[in-house]
Amino acid sequence: MPHEDVYEVLYTEPAARDRDRLDPARRASFDKAVGILARDPYTELSRPIGPGEQDREIRLTSQIVAEYMVSRGRLLLVMLRIFDDADILLPEEG
Fold first, then answer.
1. CATH number of 8-82: 3.30.365.10, 2.40.160.210, 3.30.2310.20, 3.40.190.10?
2. What span, in angstroms and rounded, lies between the C-alpha atoms of 85 and 46?
3. CA atoms of 35 and 71, how far apart (whole Å)
4. Model's pTM, two decimal places?
5. Angle 8-12-17 (CA atoms, 0-180°, nearest 5)?
6. 28 burial type by CB count under 10 A (0-12 exposed, 13-18 middle, 19+ buried)
7. What are the sequence ranges of the domains in the chain?
8. For residue 18, which of 86, 89, 84 has the smallest C-alpha distance?
9. Can you give the pLDDT of all 94 residues of the chain as single tens digits?
């Protein structure tokens, strides 16, 4: 079985606080998504948010967007934006 490089995942204090506030179901989905991202932080689903390629943004789940930095085998989650359907001003009509 080939060796798979996995980036070390680190969090800023605000991102860690937001992660720790997730309910168990959302936390499980979040952790699974972060595990996938740690294997490929430059996935085509992410996009650069600065002049270089190392500062990036990705929608981890339907309700969580992460801004992160990639450097020297590390992935630093800088900020999480967590959305909740209860805080929508004008819901989409089906």
1. 3.30.2310.20
2. 23
3. 17
4. 0.87
5. 110
6. exposed
7. 8-82
8. 84
9. 344 689 999 999 999 999 999 999 999 999 999 999 999 999 999 999 988 899 999 999 999 999 999 999 999 999 999 998 777 888 777 6
